[in-house]
Amino acid sequence: MPEVVFPKMRLKDTNQGMCDLENGKEFRMYVCGITPYDSTHLGHAATYLAFDLINRYQRLSNLKVSFVENITDVDDPLLERANRDNQDWSVLANSQIELFQSDMAALRILPPEQFIKVTDSMQLIESFIDRLDENGFLYKVDSDLYFSAEKFLEDLPFSVDDSIKIFSERGGDPTRVGKKHPLDPLVWSANVAGEPGWDSKYGYGRPGWHIECTAIACEYLDNEKSDPIIDLQGGGSDLIFPHHFMSSQIVKAALGRDFATHYVHAAMIGFGGEKMSKSKGNLVFVSTLIKDGVDPMVIRWGLLSGHFQVDREWNVDLLKTAQSEVALVRSSLSRSDVSPSDLLIKDLVNAVADNLDTPFALKRLVEWAQDSHVNPSVNESGLVSRAIDSLLGLAL
């Protein structure tokens, strides 16, 4: 890219509203990864694309980015599908991880520096549970272990009643007899016959959802000096509660520090008028689109055409528009002479810096491409090609 000034990135923090990201020497980001029981759908892709743009921008700003993503490769949905299909759960998980990584590569989403499986992290998870135990925040119900969250519920994003309802809908068990508080999350689950398990001082079993992420994030990103521990916690908006809320409270209880300076969430992708989800049966898979001949860069363009924090629909018209606009930009980039690039590249940088305003970035790129066909004057198509590749991940 030519010499460009990269302003501080501004992002809409779920808890604080619009915030400038501080430009220190290092930027530490943790993004919650997949549970590998099914193919990558466009909702997944949109989420990881948003954090790919943040990763790219911070690197272009000459920051050292430490980026970790987990894989929840043992969880109820995975075990249920493996049982349904009479398949070994670990074979299913590994096949879906490979497909996910293939889909991400096709979409040119840069991989994290650390891509950590839960099944490879049992010892560090147990050590993190030890910290909660030492600080007096664990208790047993039958043979299961829970985090006592009552002292950490002052900042609930919803009323207690609404929180309990959402907690129940998203994997929690608020009505279990013996719990101290309905919102206490499971930390270690005693083994159920036929399911995988691991030996630990807390019995033979497997960890709960929230403790997995906190243990992995702190193991790979904590410099033991900073407070908060990381700069940004990211994921889909469906993780705001209980997952990200509980993860942050668990870190406070275990380490006495805040977990993240910023919490940033990507909105949901819909199809057929409803949020794209397994339960709705309305998933559009990245691998299926590619198999049907859709250019991965068209998929990426289509997802970038809507703002990452606005719930939006994927449909045939959006796909056709993306195909048309990608063809237009490609035709301009193939020309020797095009319109000047300086103002375009500056606008693209500022758009990404401004809470990932990709709709404006693509609009400017289309305008530049149209003008390049009418008023070609400079041999700068290579500059534009490299700029949109490095900044937007569009290899056109």
TrEMBL record:
<dbReference type="GO" id="GO:0006423">
    <property type="term" value="P:cysteinyl-tRNA aminoacylation"/>
</dbReference>
<keyword id="KW-0547">Nucleotide-binding</keyword>
<dbReference type="GO" id="GO:0005524">
    <property type="term" value="F:ATP binding"/>
</dbReference>
<protein>
    <submittedName>
        <fullName>Unannotated protein</fullName>
    </submittedName>
</protein>
<dbReference type="GO" id="GO:0005829">
    <property type="term" value="C:cytosol"/>
</dbReference>
<dbReference type="Pfam" id="PF01406">
    <property type="entry name" value="tRNA-synt_1e"/>
</dbReference>
<keyword id="KW-0067">ATP-binding</keyword>
<keyword id="KW-0436">Ligase</keyword>
<dbReference type="InterPro" id="IPR014729">
    <property type="entry name" value="Rossmann-like_a/b/a_fold"/>
</dbReference>
<feature type="domain" description="tRNA synthetases class I catalytic">
    <location>
        <begin position="24"/>
        <end position="323"/>
    </location>
</feature>
<dbReference type="GO" id="GO:0004817">
    <property type="term" value="F:cysteine-tRNA ligase activity"/>
</dbReference>
<dbReference type="InterPro" id="IPR032678">
    <property type="entry name" value="tRNA-synt_1_cat_dom"/>
</dbReference>
<dbReference type="InterPro" id="IPR024909">
    <property type="entry name" value="Cys-tRNA/MSH_ligase"/>
</dbReference>
